[in-house]
Structures are given as C-alpha cells and as structure tokens.
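Practice problem: 5-amino-6-(5-phosphoribosylamino)uracil reductase
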Amino acid sequence: MVVYAAAVALGPSNFPSSLICRATSSSSLAFDATCINRAAHLADKSAGLTAPHPNFGCVIATADAEQRVVVGEGYLYAQGTTPPEVQAVQDSGDRCRGATAYLNMEPGHCLGDQAAVAALIQAGISRVVIGIRHPLHHLRGKAIRALRSEGLLVDVLREDLQCETVEEALKSCLLVNAPLLYRAACGVPFSVLKYAMTLDGKIAASSGDASWISSKKSRTRVFEMRGRSDAVIVGGNTVRQDNPRLTARHGGGHFPQRIIMSKSLDLPETAYLWDVAEVPTMVATQRGARRSFQNYLASKGVEVVEFEILNPKVVMDYLYDRGCLSILWECGGALAASAISHGVIHKVHAFVAPKIIGGKNAPSPVGELGMVEMSQALELHDVHYEQIGPDMLVSGFLHPVPDLAPPIRSIDEISAIDPTVSPYEASIIFFYKTWDPYGAFSNFSLHPFQMCDENGDFTTWQSVEHYYQAHKFVGVDDPIGKSCFEDIKNAKSPEEAARLGRKMQRQCPDLVRSDWESIKISVMYRALKSKFSTYPNLTSMLLSTAGSVLVEASPHDLFWGGGRDGEGLNYLGRLLMQLRSEFLADSYEPHQNEVQNLS
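Answer key — structure tokens:
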C-alpha cells in the first residue's frame, strides 16, 4: 500500500499503478491532479508514434468513501490501435463501476470513432476528469457533451476544478500535446531548434569542424528528440560540411523524414542523405534550380519539392498541409536565424558543453536577427535546466504553449444556435487525416472489416491501409514477401502498415507482384466497398455528400490524392464518388420497385 503523500513525493514519472489514497475533502483535488499527471506521463510514451494525432493517456481510480485506488490505465500506442480508455477499462474489469476516469485530453468523438466514450459509458464510469479539451474545432467539446448526456459527471481542469495543484496538472497536459496545440493555434507544425555549442557560444571551429562539441550522452538525447519528430530539417551548408545521416538510431519503429532546404541546390552528389532505403529524404528548393541535379536526386528516390520563393514559412505551411505535427531543426546559424525571423520556431534546446574554442570566425548557433539592443533579445518561457553527462541542456519556449481557452465552438454547437449553418455545405469536400470532419473516408481510419481470401476464408483487416499495403505481396513466391504480407497484416496501426509496405516496395521492388500497377485500383475499391458496407454510419456519411466532389487532400500523393495545387489524379476521391453512386442507386432501386408495384 502506498499513501498519497508518498506518491506526490515520487512525482508522476514514478507514479505506482497500485496507488491508494485516503479520500478526504482536502486531498481529493490533489489526488485528481496526480492522476491527471499520470495520464499525461502515460500519453508521452507515444510521442512520435501517434503523429499527427494527439497523445492520449487514461487512468481509472475507484472512488469509494474510504479510499481511492488506481485500478487501470492505458495509453495510445499509435493511431488505429486500441484507445487508452478501452485499455484502462479492460485493465480495471468490474472495478470500473462507479469509478473515476482521468484523461489528459478530451478524446476524439466523431462519426465512426466513438470507442473511447462508449467504453467509459458501458463500463459504468460515474465521473470523468479531463485535462484539456480537444484542440480541433470540430471535435472540441463533443466527447464532453456525449458523456454528460449519459449522466456522467465531467470535470475539466480550470473550468470546473481550480487550485494551484490543478494548474500544475494542466501544464503537464499542455506540454505533452504542445505540438498539436501549436498546430491548431498557429497553423504550422510545432518546431524545435536544437543546437550544441561550446561555453563561448560556438557551434564549430573556424575551419567548420564540429565533431564533437557535445558528449555521447547528449547525442543520445538528440536521437530521442528525432524519434519524437515527424521531420528533421537542415540547410545545404550542413550537408556540405557535416554529411549527416540524421537518423534516430534509438531502436524504435519511427524514423523522421530528413529535409534539406537549399535555394541553389549546390549540394554534393554523394551524401548519406541520398540513401533512402531506411529513411525518406526531401529536398526543398526554389523553382528552376539545377534541373539536372533534381533529376539525379529523383533517380536516387529523393523527393524534390520546388517553391516559388524558398523560406522557412512556406516550407512549414507545406509540411502543415502534409500533416506534420513536430519538426526538429538541426541547421546552422543562418537558417536558424531565418526560421526565428519567420516566426516558425516555438521551442529551443541548447546543449552547452564545458569547452572553449574561441575564434573570430567560428560560427554561432543563430545568425543575424537585426537586433542592436539587449532589450530586443528574445526571452524563453518555462525554462528548464538538465545536466546530461558533462553538458548542460537549456530548454525553453519562445512563446507560451497555447491552451486555446476559452473553448472554441464546434460546428455542431454553431449549428445548434443557427440551423442554417451546415457542415455539409461545400461543393468540394476535402478529406485527408482521420481527425478531419470527413476523416472516416481516410484509408487510415480504424474500421476493421472482413474480406474473403484466395482460399475462400474470411480474414479480418484492421484498416483499408493494412489491406492495400499487404496486397502488394499477395501471390509472391518468396519467403520474404510472404513474411512481409503477414507483418503488414499484423501491424499495430495503419501508419505502421504503410511504413512497412512502402519501405519494402522501395528496398525490394522485385518482391512486389508483377501486376500491381494494373490491379491496385481494383484492390483499393474492394477494400473501400467492404469497409463502407460494414458500417451503416459510414454509408450514411458518404451519402450525405451527394452532389459534392470528394478530394483526398494529400499534397504529395499525386495518384491517390489531389496534390498541392489540384494537379493530382485524386483516385481515392474518385473511387469514393463511384461507391457513393452505387449506394445511391441501391437505395433508389427499392423505391422504383414500390412505384412499379403500385402502378
């Protein structure tokens, strides 16, 4: 048995799963805060694996008159895996009835994705404490209203619970989902500037040599930072000087995309970054730069994206459209200064090594910002100091983490006030990420369905993406191909299935079935039809779009998506519109038969 006071002393990172606390009026708020901290700590375990979706954690505690006991917990491993609320309910068993559930963030609650709310209601949870509301407008408040409509007591930190301890718990909830909050509030991915410098503020010697400023322990921490990011950005000079790999090398399943920003494309023909067998690389450049070198990079499998004017803001806007949530900048001083000046850097990690190198021409971590007085200096908020080996890590935010308060009205709340406002008015309906209003149209939405295999047996597929990626290797007479099929089928999330399928297709194109290009559209259509036929609510959602053009708003997939400027073929949108026509015809045919019978 562990009493509450001991749990507070241990802190959230050591919070025992069997916590027991005497339930008194003076300690109830403190217990709520501690459980929310624990939920946030659990949620942080999925950082880098759920992007661009939130990090969710759930803790369930009994609430009888004598004591409070934590009986279950869970966190979201990746989008498409079991929701933490479902995990915690399963972990708690019969002890859920009358218990309190603690969530670091309001769960997403939309058509086709109501498992989290349903699990809490069906388990008999009587009270739910939520750290922060969902930051996305169309989801904000929906789960809270759904829970309250079923008679559950729902308390939201700061709105319903207020005290100094609660404010600290709220801060932990904001920090664990800071990337999502910045994305929702600012319309750009959350960007972190990381650099290592000597005690006298140099990131390299005057010769350009920078190996190594920081210690091995600090470099290991950088690998962890990369593993929590969707992409890592450097400039052309870093590629020329350091020839970096920019891999996570942390042993996990997530590897961030490497991005090089270079206006002139004055880059070496040989570089570690051009090897995309394990990790993809994208080069952002200015339109028309070195066409021959662009073709060379493309032949290597490197993605080249041209911009009319290349700067950090337009690249961040583009990565936002691609669904990126968190970006790590590991660039030199000139690009770092440009990124700060364009307002896209939100947090700074500075590793300070106890070394002095001097040198008038030795570069510093941030170039010219145009500031001439100390009063103009940018100050960091929520500064944190941590010793890592011999180095000191100084971290802080350039702007406070947005908490999006007061609550932003969702489209449902607006429609309730003004019935003339409808979420289905647009003549063109875009969908892309599963969190979008029409996110259930995405191949990555978690809607399991059954399909008959070549042996006549029915197989359950967790998502359309699982089915599509695995079928690249159906019928391949090779043990590796067969193993890849099984690995994709059993992948923990649609994102993981996509990574496995794309990686194997890049590395071993000979293993992909020879007829894939000619049959991939029909494979996709079979999966879509099975998915939408399995779920009546999805069919209704699809039919509600009648008269509208459906566009998969992927800015980089020019086959299944619509592209950045509408240049894509949008085959996924086309297939959904074809399926919609079939469903409309089916719903119309019985009515026609009734008319004929009456006549």
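Discussion: The chain has a mean pLDDT of 84. Students who identified this feature from the tokens alone can consider the problem solved.
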